[in-house]
Amino acid sequence: MGKIRIPRGPGDVMTILALDGFESYVVGGCVRDGLLGLEPHDWDICTNATPQDVMEIFTKRNIKTIETGIKHGTVTVCLWGEQYEVTTFRIDGTYSDGRRPDSVSFTSSLQEDLSRRDFTINAMAYAEVPGLIDPFGGEKALRDKVISCVGNPADRFGEDALRIMRALRFASTYGFRIDSGTEAAIHQLAPTLCNISSERINAELCKLLCGQGVLDVLLNYSDVMTTIIPELAPCVGFDQNNPYHQYNVYDHIAHAVANYKGDDISIKVALLLHDIGKPHCYTEDERGGHFHGHGIRSHDIADVVTNRLRFDNKTRNEILELVLDHDSFIEPTPKTVRRWLNKIGADRFHQLIHVRMADIKAHAESTHQYRIERCTELQEVLEDTLSKEQCFSIKDMQINGYDIMELGIQEGKQVGYILHKLLDDVIGDKIKNEHTLLVEAASSYIGQLEGES
Fold it and tell me: How is residue 440 annotated by DSSP?
């Protein structure tokens, strides 16, 4: 650690500022990720130049600038086809709305600017000369793999409660632990997340769920999770009393989320919500606990949650379908697979297999082997069906609506009815997907319709 490579774009921005006598540094997340050996997504720059200075410096060189957040000291510089935010060193005023400072004042002190930031790993700046500026021990925190606030954690979270979610997101993303003082403040101030907009919660939650340390975060901060998703609260500590389960409902959910190692957010959120309706469906008999119909109840609750968290319609639909179908019995046979492909499509089927496998691995270990083998077999049948381009939808059939109308049926519902009957026959192996055979079968169905009329 200690050195990072600054690419051409931000490096040129810094060079131009230096030519006019100003200091500048890359700052925040790009320094953090650079020290970790990761490729930064954004390069933010801080400087002792005022916003007006920044605009004048680049405008006189015919470089476009945008007044992105000039009130808070930020100007965007457009260079080499990219955009770089350049922000004046500043001190934040009070945060009466729990989101943004009511006012900012500019300062010539880089350390004062860094002292207003959320976590020590984000309170570092870097330039080729003098190198790393790290007044709060951010580099050591990276080495120790710990998330800690700059200054008093209660003050930092009081300024912006979303920083609670950011702390959990960083802990999950990097697999870091959260220090005791920061952790205590998170638990104390978790209820203040109710004041944060759904869109901001959504963005942090999605990143959190995809992190390598998501299991520890979900298990250790259930109070935060039930603040942003109150519907999860009944799941915490709810004993399943079932030989297939080794965890309570919430802990099972946490393990299922962690078991999926991909980054498909629809799968991650579906796993977070797949059993959320279980406490409302619990019954018990001499064999133990049961959750009949929990897929439907979980779907209905997930509908409310995903709407409140402002997921886009495509993602919502994916999540809801996966939650609804996650516990469905799907026999690993070509005929059954074709029916499910017709119902949900290939993309959703692949997602569903990921959900089912993650779910199975979160059950009691003694129940894993057979169910994993069955899920693997289902995936093999799916891939075989797709590779052979077997028919599972109307568009795959060797007959279409025009062919049906040429047999004497007028355009309308009856054409669709016959096509669906033919598709059902093909999927059920009652007839081959061949044009001549399909025309003969269609003629037979038309005759039946005319006989009924």
Answer: H
Q: How confident is the model at residue 178 (pLDDT cuts 50, 70, 90)?
A: very high
Q: Which residue has the tokens 């900012």?
A: 104
Quickly tell me which residue has 């101030």 as its tokens: 189
Burial (Cβ within 10 Å: 0-12, 13-18, ≥19) of residue 399:
buried
Is residue 135 within 8 Å of residue 110, measured between CB atoms? no
Spatial distance between the Cα atoms of 453 and 447, rounded to a whole number of angstroms: 10
The predicted structure's pLDDT at residue 373? 95
Give the C-alpha separation, 298 to 284, whole Å: 19
401 pLDDT band, cuts 50/70/90, is confident
To 10 degrees, the CA torsion angle through 326, 328, 330, 336?
-110
Which token pair is 213?
């340390």
- d(CA 163, CA 360) in angstroms, rounded, equals 34
- In the beta sheet, which residues pair with residue 74? 69, 87
Tens digit of pLDDT for each residue in 315-345?
999 999 999 999 999 999 999 999 999 999 9
Is the pTM for the entire model greater than 0.70? yes
Distance of CA 201 to the CA centre of its chain: 11
